[in-house]
Specification:
Arc Repressor Mutant, subunit A, Rossmann fold, five-stranded parallel β-sheet, 20% strand, elongated, alpha/beta, 235 residues
């Protein structure tokens, strides 16, 4: 079965261009022209990936992304924007986008990015039900990859998809010093040209959710000049 893609953009020329190139590659493509329609479509039927424009009338792309994640609709999302704005990029990824492209873009590159996101997620147990992983216990933290859930002292943590992926990767590599570039490659699977702020923002948010004192973290420790290390606070 071909992968089903939802393309959301209020510019008919962009929609036509993206739809043509994705269908030429073998994808089944459907379209929406505003944010509310995109959310409603995702509530009614499953899609394998969404190409989502940031600047939409009414409900914009970031609001669409936030609403979908709040409703636990974890469809992979590649965001498009006419703005080359670092804040938008970080915020989009922070809310759970899987990749990000700035207009104007090459249709060939967009198709390659779509394939890359689908390829990565198809091998990621967090997005599949076929692979079962045992839960990970570190201190008072319990991570359940099958359920895409993490608990601290029995309390369910409210994590975005990217925060969960980052936490899971850190926990699976407990005790190892991981560079920001390693984390970017492992969690985002894309070279953001050394944009370590994306990692630092997510680390900061994770610390707010799992550390008793964010200024003296016991789980996620900073290794100055290198990156981060995940440890057991009880050791």
């Amino acid at each position: 079965m071909p992968k089903k893609i939802l393309v959301v953009d209020d510019e008919p020329s962009i929609v036509t261009l993206v739809k043509f190139n994705l269908e030429k590659t073998g994808f089944d493509v459907e379209t929406a022209f505003d944010g509310r329609q995109a959310v409603e479509r995702c509530e009614k039927e499953p899609f394998d990936l969404m190409v989502l424009d940031v600047m939409l009338p009414g409900l914009d792309g970031l609001e669409v992304l936030k609403e979908l994640r709040t409703k636990q609709i974890n469809i992979p999302i590649l965001m498009l924007t006419a703005k080359d704005d670092e804040f938008d990029k970080v915020l989009g990824l922070e809310l759970g986008a899987d990749d990000y492209m700035t207009k104007p873009f090459s249709p060939r590159e967009l198709t390659a990015r779509v394939k890359a996101v689908l390829r990565r997620l198809s091998s990621n147990p967090s997005y599949t039900e076929e692979k079962e992983l045992e839960e990970i216990r570190i201190g008072d933290l319990v991570i359940e990859p099958e359920k895409f859930e993490a608990r601290l002292k029995g309390q369910l943590l409210e994590l975005t998809p990217k925060e969960f992926e980052l936490l899971l990767y850190l926990a699976k590599n407990q005790g190892k010093v991981l560079t920001r570039d390693q984390l970017l490659n492992a969690v985002w699977n894309y070279d953001f040209a050394g944009d370590s702020r994306i990692v630092d923002v997510h680390i900061s948010h994770l610390r707010e959710k799992i550390e008793e004192d964010t200024k003296q973290p016991k789980y996620i420790k900073t290794i100055r000049g290198i990156g981060y290390k995940f440890g057991d606070p009880q050791k």
